[in-house]
Design goal:
single chain; alpha/beta; Quinone Oxidoreductase, Chain A, domain 1; Rossmann fold; 2 domains; seven-stranded mixed sheet; six-stranded parallel sheet; 11 helices; 18 strands
């Protein structure tokens, strides 16, 4: 093995977009693997970096949805070997720490440094001219190659295309699990999903799969509303006011059992509208992040107490990567969930800024970078 050069899309500071940069990439150390990426998902969370909404250490290599082939491994790696096809999980899962042992792999202690992009030993693997570059979520899938923790890779069967697999590293389980696990949708429930992008579309699929009677989508973009209807939504609206009126009517005044928040950015207005749209014992599940300097959950306690409403956050949709990534790919195989249909556009690495411009223009549900394109 030897240190190699890789081309990566890097954010050097907020509001300047992504810049293709030649970086030096270290050899993998103990319990680390070096991956040659084939595909990377373009998640809104990476966009929050360049827009200044996510406080991460810079410079940082973007990307936290990726799939590819293991190029080399460090010492004592047992989960995979060179040549294996893998999908990365942006939440590593060691399987042995306290959260993992309690069934909460989405809170594995191996992910403590995700915001800095450094490894648990306090070092980095990307470098240029003596400066350390982090990888977002300790991955950095907007790079041809990256060194990642052994605990952040999940073996991938040969029949799953890389562009499908990369989306199951974040967007699919985060949305699907937000409905099925975090919200706990049950048959016959009424569910409202705010935001029908790459995560919200999968919350729609999760709610449908869990047996919800009404799956209502709120999104200002007509294209996303139309797409949601093909993924299991029963009604869609451009505004929360329209949705509230419909939910009140269709439930005979009982209101929604669940509101799941997956917009581009969670705001106080959205949270308040969602809480007021839930009925007695209803739950609002917050999955999307908000603007770093703004408070999103500020409302009178009586709104919660009088109807015994709940508000909770969801990380990775409460999914366990080692269990749920293979399970979701199995549901894709059987046709129970749609993933290929989520891919609106495909881009090469040098088109990453155009890809996010298209996202802001409402043209993408989920798009992917194909590294060999």
């Amino acid at each position: 093995m030897a240190t190699i050069t890789t081309t990566a899309a890097v954010a050097h500071q907020a509001h300047t977009g992504w810049e293709l940069t030649q970086l030096q990439l270290d050899d993998p150390k103990e319990h680390e693997v070096r991956i040659k990426f084939a595909a990377s998902g373009l998640c809104h969370s990476d966009d929050h970096i360049t827009r200044g909404d996510a406080k991460v250490r810079m410079p940082v290599v973007g990307g936290h949805e990726g799939a590819g082939i293991v190029e080399s491994v460090g010492e004592n790696v047992t989960r995979v070997k060179p040549g294996d096809r893998v999908v990365c999980s942006y939440i590593p899962a060691c399987g042995a720490c306290r959260p993992c042992s309690l069934g909460h792999q989405n809170m594995c202690v191996k992910g403590l440094n995700a915001g800095t992009g450094m490894f648990l030993d306090g070092t980095f693997r990307f470098h240029k001219d003596g400066e350390d570059y982090g990888g977002f979520c300790s991955l950095g899938t907007f790079s041809e190659y990256a060194v990642v923790s052994e605990w952040a890779v999940v073996p991938l069967d040969d029949d799953i295309p890389f562009e499908i697999a990369c989306l199951v590293g974040c967007g699919v389980p985060t949305g699907w699990g937000s409905a099925v696990y975090a919200a706990g949708v049950k048959p016959g429930d009424t569910v409202v999903v705010f935001g029908a992008g790459g995560v919200g579309s999968n919350a729609v699929q999760g709610a449908r799969y869990a047996g919800a009677k009404n799956v209502v989508v709120v999104d200002p973009v007509q294209f996303k509303r139309d797409s949601a209807l093909g993924l299991g939504a029963t009604e869609t609206f451009a505004t929360a006011e329209e949705a509230h009126e419909y939910v009140n009517a269709v439930t005979w005044g009982q209101l929604a059992d669940h509101c799941i928040l997956t917009p581009d950015a969670v705001t106080e207005e959205i949270v308040t509208a969602a809480v007021l749209m839930t009925g007695k014992g209803g739950k609002t599940t917050i999955t999307a992040v908000g603007h770093a300097e703004e408070k999103a959950v500020t409302l009178p306690g009586g709104f919660l107490i009088s109807y015994q409403r709940q508000i909770r956050g969801a990380l990775f949709g409460d999914c366990n990567p080692l269990y749920d990534i293979p399970k979701l790919l199995g549901l894709y195989r059987s046709g129970d969930i749609k993933i290929k249909e989520l891919i609106t556009n495909r881009y090469s690495l040098d088109e990453v800024n155009r890809a996010y411009d298209d996202l802001h223009a409402g043209k993408n549900i989920r798009s992917v970078i194909l590294h060999d394109a």
